[in-house]
Design goal:
This protein is of the alpha+beta class. The protein folds into 2 domains: about 1-90; about 110-340, Bira Bifunctional Protein, Domain 2 (BirA Bifunctional Protein, domain 2). Helix content is about 40%, strand content about 20%. The chain has 11 helices and 9 strands. The strands form 2 sheets. A 7-stranded mixed beta sheet has the order 1-4-5-9-8-7-6, sandwiched between helices. A two-stranded antiparallel sheet has the order 2-3. A hairpin with a 2-residue loop joins strand 6 and strand 7 (about 255-265). The longest helix is centred in the N-terminal third of the chain and has 38 residues, at about 55-90. It is rod-shaped and about 140 Å long. Bound molecules: phenylalanine. The site of phenylalanine has 10 residues, from strand 8 and strand 9. The site of phenylalanine (PHE) has 10 residues, from strand 8 and strand 9.
């Protein structure tokens, strides 16, 4: 009986040491120490022993029970440790690893420059006005003194919306001048950026849709000097304090006198190079003193008030600013290109 007990003990201890998880361990406990376990089964046979043997075997059995229990406890502790260790490893969070910054978008370069221009004008007391892109021919042409036979009125130049030519996609932001003068009285100081549409073929410097920024100032005693001062300020704030401009006579039906403003080429400083196509100057915008008839049509007395207006191509400002030679790059939305600005 003694040998039987010892063999059982050796088998039990070996099995416990190899138990791979808590369930296996519990099964072993039941198998050896449980009510129907092997040790109990042996003890049930104690009755057959002599009075001499009984206490010896009883003591051995108790010893074995204690040994098996101790082994179960230590294996249980070892398994619990391993479990914790594995969990710690699995759930480890290294707070010192640099985070992954989410890729945020950014402003389109056209918006960036528009925001700069807007800031400059708001700083000079201008307010921002909006106008419709689908415009009445009255506002875009008639009220701007554009003659009946002007080429801009042709279907080859302008996107008409209605057959009767009463509605079209505006080809300039100038109709906003009329809308503002119709609803407000001087002093007027507004800036109106927006999209305009012309039937132009797409190339490096043309697009059927582009952006203009219209400016209008109407008050008592406004002169061409004010026009030049404001536009020079814009150029210097946008392109740097040593930017040189020049004003050339021009013609627009809605301003009198009219002019175009050029900036001296940044590349060659006026000598003529590839960037300015040998001119030394780059045309930036059209402007002029608001035509007295245009004021009159809005009920503003030209004897009392005068004003100036200008219209500048936003894409052109952007291309100058960042030395971009092809306008199409601004619309292709290739983030590898746009990310640079
Ligand atoms: N609307 C003109 C153009 O598109 C520009 C302009 C605006 C000229 C205001 C004079 C005054 O060419």
């Amino acid at each position: 009986m003694k040998e039987m007990l010892q063999a059982m003990r050796d088998a039990a201890l070996a099995a416990i040491r190899q138990a791979g998880d808590m369930e296996a361990l519990e099964a072993l406990r039941v198998r050896y120490l449980g009510k129907k376990g092997e040790l109990t089964a042996v003890l049930k046979q104690m009755g057959r022993l002599s009075a001499q043997e009984r206490p010896v075997i009883g003591q051995l059995a108790n010893q074995i029970r204690a040994q098996v229990e101790a082994e179960l406890d230590s294996r249980r502790a070892a398994l619990a440790d391993a479990l914790l260790e594995a969990r710690l490893k699995e759930e480890a969070l290294d707070v010192t690893i640099p985070g992954q910054a989410p890729a945020l978008g950014k402003k389109h370069v056209i918006t960036t420059v528009l925001d700069e221009v807007t800031d400059i004008f708001v700083g000079m007391g201008f307010t921002i006005e909006d106008g419709p892109e689908i415009e009445l021919t009255t506002y875009d042409f008639d009220r701007l003194n554009i003659p009946e036979n002007h080429t801009v009125r042709e279907w080859t130049d302008t996107f008409y919306i209605s057959r009767d030519e009463k509605v079209h996609l505006r080809c300039q932001t100038s109709p906003v001048q009329v809308r503002v003068m119709d609803k407000t009285r001087p002093p007027i100081r507004i800036l109106s950026p927006g999209r305009v549409y012309r039937k132009d073929e797409i190339d490096a410097t043309h697009s059927p849709m582009f952006h203009q920024i219209e400016g209008l100032v109407v008050d008592r005693g406004i002169t061409m000097g004010d026009l030049k001062g404001i536009l020079n300020t814009l150029m210097q704030k946008l392109y740097g304090p040593d930017t040189v401009t020049r004003f050339r006579p021009h013609h627009f039906p809605f301003t009198e006198p009219s002019c175009e403003m050029d900036v001296q080429c940044f590349e060659c400083r006026g000598k003529g190079c590839r960037v300015c196509k040998g001119e030394g100057w780059i045309e930036i915008l059209g402007a002029g003193m608001v035509h007295p008839w245009v004021l009159e049509m809005s009920g503003i007395d030209p004897a009392e008030y005068s004003g100036f207006a200008f219209g500048v191509g936003l894409e052109r400002l952007v291309m100058r600013r960042f030395n971009i030679s092809d306008m199409r790059l601004l619309y292709e939305n290739d983030v590898r290109f746009l990310d640079q600005f």
